[in-house]
Amino acid sequence: IDHNFCLASQRRALTPVATLRASNGISLHCASTEPGLQVYDGAGLIHGAYAGLALEPQGWPDAPNQAHFPSVWLHPGDSYHQRTQFRFT
After folding, report:
1. pTM, entire model
2. Strand pairing report for 84-88 and 27-32
3. What pLDDT was estimated at residue 82?
4. How is 1-49 classified by DSSP, letter by letter?
């Protein structure tokens, strides 16, 4: 898996976007202000296939070329702010 999940039509308040649960009962919770979540299963990691997992909150792929996607453009003087929170329980 190397896929972007399009979760919202724009950046928004900090929102839960993913929860991973291990068989030992530990959970990883991810929340973000970003409209997309890239998920990569680690198939090509040099430490061994599937030795890890990546959750990467971000904008939608190809957004600069798609006017109907949430904008990722920054113009001179613009600021970019986002928040991502990872929490273990």
Report:
1. 0.89
2. antiparallel
3. 96
4. -EEEEE--SS--S-EEEEEEE-TTS-EEEEEESSSEEEEE--TT-TT-T
